Amino acid sequence: MKNIDVITIGEAMITFNPKATGPLKFVNTFERKVGGAELNLAVGCARLGLKTGYITKLGNDEFGRYLLSFIRGENINTSHINLVDGYPTSLNFKEIMESGDTRTFYYRDKSPTLTLTASDLDEEMFKKAKILHLTGIYPAIHHDNIKVYKRAIQLAKKHDVKVSFDPNIRLRMWSKEKAREVLSEILPNVDILLAGQDEMQIIIGEKNPETIIKKSKDLGISFIAIKQGSEGSVGYYKGTTIKSPAVRAAKVADTVGAGDGFNAGILYGLLNAWDLERTLTFANTIGSMVVGVRGDNEGLPYYEDVQAQLGEIERVER
After folding, report:
1. Within its chain, how far is the Cα of 236 from the centroid?
2. By Cβ atoms counted within 10 A, which residue in 67, 187, 201, 208 is the most buried?
3. What does the alpha-carbon distance between residue 240 and residue 3 come to, in Å, rounded to a whole number?
4. How far apart are the C-alpha atoms of 247 and 286, rounded to whole Å?
5. Rounded distance between C-alpha atoms, residue 252 and residue 99, angstroms
6. Contacts with 147 (C-beta within 8 Å, 6 or more apart), sequence order
7. Nearest Cα residue to 137 out of 103, 182, 96
């Protein structure tokens, strides 16, 4: 019985958010937050009400224990999370400008996820899952992580688990050439593509949405969503292509996590068999809500919050 909606594999991090905007060298105080693209996706899915599992390893230190408590508190399955000695929990420091634009500075050279191997993946978890979500960040951390992804994809295909993929290319972590080499090998195994135009230009040399959709369809990808930031998104599913306009945010405080929220919205719509237009609108709305809150995942909404934002119900007071 498939009773897990989404599972994902990645690196959870402690994020230090600046308490002032501007260049990082002039910031003196920070707030401890939680980050990591795959974890943000898991949090986003869980808050929408999806049953979500997260596979990772954390440092056996105060930060690792804090992350484990946080993840458990978000009602995410933690049965495949382990604390390991000798590998400090990864950190990043964020720079936020007045516009909401950000830069991130990573301290993850000895990531605890380096101890996660392909043999650690539990086949039983894959048997129960409906969607496996992967990103381009995890294989960028270390080349051995590619083996973990290959095994995860193998298990997903064996047990009829749809593979969702966000390239999420971080050029601070690897070159365009290396990203293209690794991620182009993943694409033929993908069922659900959630990508930005610039990322697809790096991987397949194309930025035009129509061309991206055509080439992705040729690879056997059945659902395609192209994220266009302030211009919204373009989606393809079951022979239909739709351009979905952006949902204007009331304010932009921090753009980090918006793409992860969008991804969670797409997966929710697919799991609930919504049509393409409703799914894209739902995902765009979540993205617009995330950017209004500082933090990687603080702005990820609960399902009723999205309903209220869409005008489907009255706003819930907490």
Report:
1. 20
2. 67
3. 29
4. 9
5. 7
6. 117, 118
7. 182
| Model pLDDT, residue 317 | 66
Give the confidence band of 316 by pLDDT, cuts at 50, 70, 90.
Answer: low
Burial 231-241 (b: 16+ CB within 10 A, else e): ebbbbbbeeee
End-to-end Cα distance, the chain: 35
- Return the number of other C-beta atoms located less than 10 Å from residue 159's C-beta: 17
Which band of pLDDT confidence, cut at 50, 70 and 90, is reported for residue 230?
confident
pLDDT band at 113 (very low <50, low <70, confident <90, very high): very high
Three-state SS sequence of the chain: CCCEEEEEECCCEEEEEECCCCCHHHCCCEEEEEECHHHHHHHHHHHCCCCEEEEEEEECCHHHHHHHHHHHHCCCECCCEEEECCCCCCEEEEEECCCCCEEEEEECCCCHHHHCCHHHCCHHHHHHEEEEEEECHHHHHCCCHHHHHHHHHHHHHHCCCEEEEECCCCCCCCCHHHHHHHHHHHHHHCCEEEEEHHHHHHHHCCCCHHHHHHHHHHCCCCEEEEECHHHCEEEEECCEEEEECCCCCCCCCCCCCHHHHHHHHHHHHHHCCCCHHHHHHHHHHHHHHHCCCCCCCCCCCCHHHHHHHCCCCCCCCC
**Average pLDDT for the chain:** 94
CA atoms within 13 A on the CB side of 54: 32
Q: Are 87 and 114 in contact (CB under 8 A)?
A: yes
Question: Is this model's pTM higher than 0.70 or not?
Answer: yes
- Token pair of 113, please? 């996820």
